[in-house]
Specification:
Shape: globular
Number of strands: 2
Largest sheet: 2 strands, antiparallel
Radius of gyration: 16 Å
Order of helices and strands: EEHHHHHHHHH
Number of helices: 9
Length: 151
Amino acid sequence: MKEPVIYPTAEDNRVLMVEEPAALFGRVESREQVIRKIKKGLPAASFEKLRAEFGVTAAELAATLNINMRTLARRKQSGRLDVDESERVYRLARLFQIGLNLFQDTELTRRWFAAPKEIFGGLTPLNYADTEPGAQEVEKQLRRIGHGVFY
């Protein structure tokens, strides 16, 4: 695992948690800050940011996140996802960030998540990560790759 980045100035002397999804949270001071944001409900725009990160359609991402498209439209109107939806968005965003930290290339990360893998029963890592246990398996495989162990 990479070491956290320490910002050098007194004003920015805080730790960036390198596995927190930068696209959703920017600079993160603490795990508690992330938890508060999720409990409040992530902005509905987080869905679109995550969709852009993965380079998939809204329907594909909504299916993986188990969010009905009509519900998603209502969330966009209200401006916030609910807590459960926020947790699922966070889960996938965190996986993408772990992949990005590993592969150091957005397109390569997208391709890894989009390619079916035998280890996931022929599903793509993105589709396999639609549940917490599936997401844990995807994370485990990313960590194995990071340690030079391939499936």
